[in-house]
Amino acid sequence: MIQRRGAQKYPDTVWGKGNPPKVGRKNLSAWACAEEAQDCFFRTPSGEKALFMLGERQGQPLEAAAAGGAGSRSLLLRDLFHCPNTVPAGAGTDLEESNMVFGLLKDIKNGEYRTIATPAEIATIVADGHTALVQRGAGEKAGFEDQEYEKAGARLVDTMEDIYGQADFVTKVKELEPCEFPLLRKGQIIFTCIHPAAHPQEVQAILDSGCIAFTAEDCHRYGSPNCEAAGKQGALMGLESMLSINGGKGKFVSGLGGAPAMRVLILGGGTVGQAALSVLYALGARVTVMDINIGILRTLKRQYQEHIDTMLCTKENIAQLLPDTDMVLNCVKWPKGCNDFLIDRSMLKLMGKGSVIVDISNDDNGAIESFHETTHENPRYIEEGVIHYCVSNIPGAIANSTSIAYAASVIPHFRAILNHGVAEACVRDGFLRRALTAYRGYLTHEETSALQGRPWVRPEDILGIADRQLDPAPPATVTRSDNYLPLEQVKL
User: Fold this and answer.
1) Quick check: helix, strand or coil at residue 189?
2) 20-29, 130-139, 154-163: which has the minimum mean pLDDT?
3) SS3 readout for 98-123
4) Residue 23 above 80 pLDDT?
5) Which of 356, 376, 354, 411 has its CA nearest to residue 125?
6) 346 in a domain, yes or no?
7) How many helices (H) and strands (E) does the chain have?
8) What pLDDT does residue 82 have?
9) The domain containing residue 176 runs over which residues?
10) Do 161 and 413 form a contact (C-beta atoms < 8 A)?
11) What's the whole-number average pLDDT of the chain?
12) Do 392 and 402 fall within a single domain?
């Protein structure tokens, strides 16, 4: 039993957690009994409290009262009223949610083969007491058949309309497509890679719907498995692009007897860059890593026993190396709104014909001026004799491995939200809290506020948890915004 925070109107109320009773046809997510009275309050999923009369004995088990057990009176509805204003109405609490409906969508983006939940995660969600809906074919291209999801306890549905219409919590891998915008519902939880700062129309649809949206790419405490997959597979795609049959120089990564190894420049020493480095170093390439963080460069130098080169990442240093570089991998998360480039079009002329640029970061207006997005079906193009590989969803090429790794990284977030509610989950995990993008019609994502000129509310403020001991997390990006919406204007 725990004391309800901020319950000024009912200071003696003690709230209970666990399996709540069912009253009529409504699942009630939490209950509380007044220590000095015979009344019991139930929390409904909509954030309302229903006041009921308990049996004559204080402390009588709620289930017995609900069932009309020995010595009890019938459970009678007496009143209905909203929660105290200390926690915004409809906000998650520190109480467990009950029997939520989890929905797994089939991704519809061209060339996307991953799934964000395998049958193993579905089995875990069902074991927690929730209902799982899976759209037919959601995991098929990643090697997970519909029958496996059924065996795990899921109910298969045919369309995304079925998922959006029935599920409290909806998830998939990639951004929401325009055809999904009208399907979003108020209070519905959405968890996917939104990339909100770069997609104003998507953000507007989310805000208009009043849903609760999390952008998955901001929630990873230890780096995204998709970043690791993109770095490792991106390195291999670069080597494929280097083949003569694909227009490249035709150099072999480690060289041959009498022929030197490839010279590779990796821009960015984060999760993506380190993943690419691990593959290229193992295969025998001569690698230089650039970053703006000297600490990272020193660490990598020691990790690879001085067998790699490192340099400060500047445009001037890049230009110095390009004439002797066979392949460049861009792994830099370029600040949105930056008007400069690390490699502009004029610098392509410094590279030899058949050299390769792999833009793993894949940012519009990113670090590579000559970038434009490509697909798995048509992955390459040539500018100034340089092969460009710019597929946006490189991890989709290894859909089975990436799906397993990705699902393993996000299932703790799923369980935290499903079992404890949005607010409590955000108290316990700062990385999930910073991933909160929109809450019931209000923007809660700082970078999006800065780049789109929209007012925002800090997640901890709109969730009513600012006075809690919060799990810390650094900001997701360096972009800051002081365009705050006054809390008195927030009407939930």
Assistant:
1) strand
2) 20-29
3) CCCEEEECCCCCCCCCCCCCCHHHHH
4) no
5) 411
6) yes
7) 14, 23
8) 28
9) 101-222+398-455
10) no
11) 84
12) no
Neighbouring C-beta atoms of residue 449, cutoff 10 Å = 23
Tokens of 136: 């037919």
Q: Which amino acid is at 330?
A: N
CA atoms within 13 A on the CB side of 84: 13
Is there a domain that residue 462 lies in?
no
Residue 180 φ/ψ, nearest 5 degrees: -90, -20
Residue owning tokens 């996000």 = 410
Do β-strands 442-443 and 436-439 pair in parallel, antiparallel, or remain unpaired? antiparallel
Q: Which residue has the tokens 């092969």?
A: 387
Buried b (16+ CB within 10 A) or exposed e, 70-90: eebeebeeeeeeebeeebbeb
Q: Which residues are catalytic?
A: 195, 363
Q: Is residue 322 part of a domain?
A: yes
Q: Which residue has the tokens 């507007």?
A: 204
Render the burial of 296-318: b for 16+ CB within 10 Å, e for the rest.
bbeebeeebeeebbbeebeeeeb
What is the rounded CA–CA span in Å between residue 412 and residue 315?
40
Helices (H), 315-385: 315-321
Give me the mean pLDDT over the 107-112 stretch.
90
Mean pLDDT of 14-42: 36
The answer as to whether 93 is a domain residue is: no
DSSP-derived secondary structure letter, 354: T
Mean pLDDT to the nearest integer, 160-164: 98
Residue 18 is given by DSSP the state S
Residue type, 120: A
At 409, the amino acid letter reads: S
Same domain (yes/no): 356, 276 = yes
| Nearest CA-CA partner of 417 in 6, 166, 93 | 93
Identify the weakest region by mean pLDDT among 208-212, 285-289, 362-366, 393-397: 362-366
Measured CA to CA, the distance from residue 80 to residue 248 in angstroms comes to: 71
Domain boundary among 348, 376, 397: 397
| pTM for the structure as a whole | 0.77
Please give the tally of structural domains in the chain: 3
Alpha helices in 183-270 (DSSP H): 200-209, 225-242
* Phi, then psi, of 214 in degrees rounded to 5: -115, 135
- Say if residue 57 is in the same domain as residue 163: no
